[in-house]
Amino acid sequence: MLMAKRPHLSLLDMTATSYSGLVGGTLVLQTATKDFQGDFKVNGLDLGSFVRDTFISGRDVTGRLSGELNGLRGRGLDKKSMTGKGQIRIENGQLWEVPVFLTLLKGVSLSQQKEFQDGTVDFDLAGGIAKISKLKFEGEDVVVEGSGEMDLEGNIRLHLDAAFDVALIPSIPLISDVWKGLRKALYGVEMTGTFKEPQISLEPLPFLGSRDRDIFGGEREKKEVPAPKKEIPRRDRGR
């Protein structure tokens, strides 16, 4: 529905089909200052078709894309003026060839191709930067979780925890009996560069740090440290 009442132009309850999914929302524009505000939602977009119209076209990516962007505000075409809060969800995905995942999975030298099937990204948009408060992608034998940021030019800085089935990474030696029961190989990952050409730094086994909860949501085993024994002073033998 289009409504015009100076100085505002309003597009209410917009609905359209796009990439075999649904797109909807509202937008209110202040015609004099070009300030705008709105809320938008997408549901079930075909990820493969969508990717073909982006800067990573030509990659074999499939799945269904949904999400929302709420409280979007800004002025004209000034990207840095935009603020808002959103979430992106991917279901039934085949995401191996998405550059950030491809770089990560090659970095740990997986012995076979494994897919991230489902994922969620929560973010806040401000000053031209999407601050990612929560990122989680998972498949049958792989989980990646973390946070970070990406600007509107595609520059990224991500801090991730990644877990893989040990059988997929034959290069990891099981050094001692301590690791013989280990089923998951864990990494701390720092990712920089751009979304299209990311660079990574890997740190094996981040669970050796001070965190109390692992990235699978379970509590880590906490060992009680016994209290120091009190020394009983010896009596002087001469007394």
Task: Explain what you see.
- The chain is elongated.
- Strands 1-2-3-4-5-6-7-8-9-10-11-12 form a 12-stranded antiparallel beta sheet.
- It is built from 2 helices and 12 strands.
- The chain has one domain (40-208).
- 17% of the residues are buried.
- Mean pLDDT is 80; it is low at 171-183 and 206-230.
- By secondary structure, the protein is mainly beta.
Topology (elements, then pairings):
Blueprint: E1 2-5, E2 8-18, E3 21-30, E4 35-46, H1 47-51, E5 62-75, E6 78-94, H2 99-107, E7 118-126, E8 129-138, E9 142-151, E10 156-165, E11 184-193, E12 198-204
Antiparallel strand pairs: 1-2, 2-3, 3-4, 4-5, 5-6, 6-7, 7-8, 8-9, 9-10, 10-11, 11-12
The proportion of strand residues reads over 45%
Distance from N terminus to C terminus (CA atoms, Å) equals: 101 Å
Q: Mean pLDDT across all residues, rounded?
A: 80
Instruction: Indicate how many domains the architecture comprises.
Output: 1
The shape, in one word, is: elongated
Major sheet strand order: 1-2-3-4-5-6-7-8-9-10-11-12
Number of strands: 12
Summarize the biggest pleated sheet: 12 strands, antiparallel
- The share of residues in helices is under 10%
